[in-house]
Amino acid sequence: MNKNEISNSFVSFSILSGTFAALASVFAKLFTDVRTFLIVQYLCNVIGNETFNCKEILNEIKEDTNWIMYFIRIFCFGSIFICNALMWTFFTKALNKSSSSLQVTILNSATNFCMTAILGNIIFGEMLSLQWWAGASLIVIGTLLVKSSYKDIESKNKTT
Predict the structure, then answer these.
(1) What is the tally of structural domains in the chain?
(2) Quick one: pLDDT at residue 68?
(3) Stretch 105-121: mean pLDDT, rounded?
(4) What does DSSP assign to residue 126?
(5) Which of these, 20, 27, 121, 145, could form a disulfide with 79 (CB 3.0-4.6 Å)?
(6) Containing structural domain, residue 61
(7) What are the backbone dihedrals phi and psi of residue 34, each rounded to the nearest 5 degrees, phi first?
(8) Which helix (H) or strand (E) holds 95?
């Protein structure tokens, strides 16, 4: 395996790790949030009334004591642990493939930050201000600078 293949292999694991960390946060919010019903309503409408009797199901789950809401909350609670386990699995694999834990940590954190914001916007309708986009851009630029400067240091060490 050449140097380029090693570099690319840890990148995908780092991105997956950050994505699963963000998904764990989404499931934690769904577990505790009152808007979980709205998401169930949306999914029910997407699946269609032909598959399930959505109107009856939605009328039943408007009360938080319904077994369907309990099932959904238990599913979200379990998904927190599954996503965290996958996050740590991919993070460990990325650390194993990379020559530097700094690269893995920075890429993981940047991915987690961006995916959390994007998923928060898509799923929960959280607004992303211009200030957020400026900050996210600086994080991505910083990530690229650290990665490129690390490559420069590595190449200088090999030539000496």
Answers:
(1) 1
(2) 72
(3) 89
(4) -
(5) 27
(6) 3-159
(7) -75, -15
(8) helix 67-97
